[in-house]
Amino acid sequence: MNDSEYIPKNSESEKGQIILLEQLKYSPTKIILVYESESKISSSTIKDNLNNNILKSIKELEKLNYFTGYSSKQPTERQVLSTRDLFIFELYFNLSTDEALNHYQEIQAQVSEVKGTKLYWTGDVPTLYESREAGKKDISRAELIGLPLTLSALLFIFGSVGAAILPIIVGITTAAITMGIGYFIAGHMPISSHFPNLVTMLGLALGIDYALLMVNRFREELGRNLSIEQAVVKTAGSAGRSIVFSGLAVTVALASMFLIDLSFFRSIAIGGVLVVFFSVLVSNTVLLSLLSIFGKHLDFLSVLHKGYLNSSDESGFWKKVAFFVTRKKPIVLVLATSIFLLVTIIPVFTMKMGIPEPNTLPSDYPSRQGYERYLSVYGDVGNKQIQIVVTLEESLDHLAPAEALYNLTKKIRGVSDILTVSSPFELVGGSTKQESIVNIQNSDNLRRLEELRVVHDRYVVITAVSAYNYNDARIDRVIQDIRNLEFENVEVHVTGSAAVKVDLINRIKERVDAVLYFVFFSTFIILFFAFRSLVLPLKAVLLNFLSIGSSLGLIVLIVQYGIGSELFQMPYTGFIMPAVPIILFCVVFGISMDYEVFLLSRIAEEYKKSGDNTTSTERGLIHTGNIITSAAFVFILIVGVFIFTDIALIKTIGLGLVIAVFLDSTLVRIALVPALMRLLGQANWWMPQRFSSNRKTSLKKDL
What is the pLDDT of residue 188? Predict the structure, then answer.
């Protein structure tokens, strides 16, 4: 929780942490060393010798000018394990989290293994370091496994190596350019550790999806005996235009994360917007150039007589599907799919949010192993601590601030579900208020309190232990109860992991409405100008909300409730990470709008020709059903690889995207949208009179 990308700026918890660092001189970074003996040590002499050898190893850290000290946390008699002995030390460094990550290998190099023990490094920094290293491996895994799978799928879809290789080129180019720019940006502002994973995931998926649409349309135009130049122009004017509007819709959805004032969301928004921009740019420039070069030799090295994509075939599978959806059972399909989507949304209303602990990492990670050994002795007391940072009007050697601090401490003890309170008064002793105040004003006691870093001038820190872990929703109420207390002549900031979580979730909740409204109205306007209709964009946006809600509901069932979690190798946490709903909403909204634009563009094109809603909807589905399912299949292959990575956030987002795209490309775009358009009839194309006069001219020009 010390990773600054998740700490809300100007929040109460951040203000408290700043005082701890700047005034009370807390070390910004703490690393925990857990030495585990090979077996139970029976001799106290051997144990002392082992402890001394460990101390000699740790003291090598004094060579580092940013090392500020250590403390020993040896188990009491009650905490000693029966099968082995643990030697636990906390190391303190005058480094920020990011600086500690950069120096982590140097820190490790100073501490050597001690014979007869096994050393585990744990705490925030080791956990983040291992997570980032895992992220690099995940990207390599996606490239080594995901790209060959995707190429195989494209060979099946197109039937030839020439057509299949172009989307791969676009996807790799998009991801590489965005990663390069991201590396430059990282030198000027903080970038999330998840930036590379998400950029790789979206860059490959969007780049390949857009290129797939362009290549398919180019092949279709060549099949109409157009020249290469004419086919390129026609492709740019139809598929290229669809990609531009689709890219705008995706960009709007991803850019909405800028509205949440958190470093994590800003960096993900930057990556997402760049990915979409370059996906659209490369598809409409580099890809069009390659298509003109390949020309009628696009299908060289044919591996199948006929690929899955054959848009001109109107007598096969998609003809039957379109007839069933638009002419045979539209009412049944609208009712059945709507009921399913609405039912699966229900778990969203039971969603709980929490922050992952090291034990959500795979069991073979040393930081998790060390954390579990630490917990086996001390339990999760550290995860139940709440820090109350107090700013007095004067230093404690004055009577009024000493009395104010005593009264404040007494009020905190009275908060429900606070088990213990550690304040300066407990450290100096005193059976009465008067005696406690006299003791705390003793100059020797004040000097000792400053050495312990609980008092400095007029700044004081009090540590309270709650009955609940920071991921237990009940601790939110405890923190709020403390914040609601009325204190006289003092300024109080509640901080610590639990308080950061509360402030993080509150910051997200404060901006959720703004994100939803921004995405809703911006997308509506884009689709309004794309299709010259009020009904089509409104329907598209509302169905997207329905589709995303259903996907998020299924994620809650899997991750929070553990239903099917083993099948997807998902860690059962009992909560959803705060970033997941926002990222899934923004990304899925954009991707879903991709498929909506693909479908509606072709339906609008057919409607311009025939003027008949049912016929145009049917023919639009015939021509795009295969491209939508192909694009979705490729997207699922690329993103699905990330489900089997080691980072909980990336796994959850990967699974959420797979579920969302599967539902959207089948139930929603292939069944619900065309069936609903069939039932709405000519109302789909309704426009106010002042806009409708130029409608046919606009459609002809744009399509």
Answer: 78
pTM above 0.70, yes or no: yes
What's the per-residue H, E or C state across 12-29? HHHHHHHHHHHCCCCCCE
Q: Residue ranges of the alpha helices (H) in 469-564? A: 474-483, 497-531, 535-555
Q: What is the pLDDT of residue 270?
A: 92
Question: Residue 42: left (phi > 0), alpha (psi -120 to 50), or beta?
Answer: alpha
Q: In sequence order, which ranges of 350-440 are alpha helices (DSSP H)?
A: 366-378, 399-413, 424-428, 433-440
DSSP annotation string for 210-256: HHHHHHHHHHHHHTTT--HHHHHHHHIIIIIHHHHHHHHHHHHHHHG
Domain ranges of the chain: 26-122, 129-355+502-702, 380-469
Q: Using CB atoms within 10 A of its CB, is residue 5 exposed (0-12), middle (13-18) or buried (19+)?
A: buried
Question: Would you give the DSSP letter of residue 381?
Answer: G
Q: How many CB atoms lie within 10 A of CB 373?
A: 21
Residues present in the chain in total: 703
Closest CA to 356 of 210, 572, 527, 198: 572
Determine the Cα–Cα distance for residues 452 and 436; give it in Å rounded to an integer: 18
Examine the pLDDT at 78 and tell me if it is beyond 50. no
Contact 266, 188 (CB under 8 A): no
- Is the dihedral angle over the CA atoms 424, 425, 426, 430 positive or is it negative? positive
Looking at residue 631, its pLDDT comes to 86
User: Which of 107, 111, 144 has its CA nearest to residue 126?
Assistant: 107
Query: Can you tell me the distance from the alpha carbon of 496 to that of 384, in angstroms, rounded to the nearest whole number?
Result: 9
Q: How far apart are CA 85 and CA 83, in angstroms?
A: 7
Task: Give, in degrees to the nearest 5, the angle at Cα 265 between 539 and 130.
Answer: 125
Could you tell me where the beta strands, DSSP code E, fall in 77-170? 86-93, 117-122
Cα of first residue to Cα of last residue in the chain, in angstroms, is 51
Q: What gap in Å lies between CA 690 and CA 698, rounded to an integer? A: 14
CA distance 130 to 592: 34
Rounded to whole angstroms, how far apart are CA atoms 594 and 441?
Answer: 68
Hey, what amino acid is at 199? V
Residue 75 confidence (pLDDT): 57
pLDDT of 138 higher than 80:
no
Name the architecture of domain 26-122. 2-Layer Sandwich (3.30)
* pLDDT per position as a tens digit, 552-597: 999 999 999 989 888 877 777 788 988 899 989 988 888 888 788 8
Rounded to whole angstroms, the maximal C-alpha distance in the chain is 99
* Residue 547, SS3 per DSSP: helix
Distances (CA, A) of 131 to 62, 135, 278, 366, 396: 27, 6, 28, 11, 43
Residue 360 or residue 404, greater confidence: 404
Structural contact between residues 194 and 154, judged by C-beta atoms closer than 8 angstroms: no
Half-sphere exposure of 226 (CA within 13 A, CB side): 18
Closest CA to 658 of 574, 577, 575, 564: 564
Highest mean pLDDT range out of 199-213, 373-387, 408-422, 570-584?
Answer: 408-422
Q: Which two tokens stand for residue 626?
A: 């295969």
Burial class (CB in 10 A: 0-12, 13-18, 19+), 48: exposed
> With 70 as the cut, is the pLDDT of residue 692 above it?
no
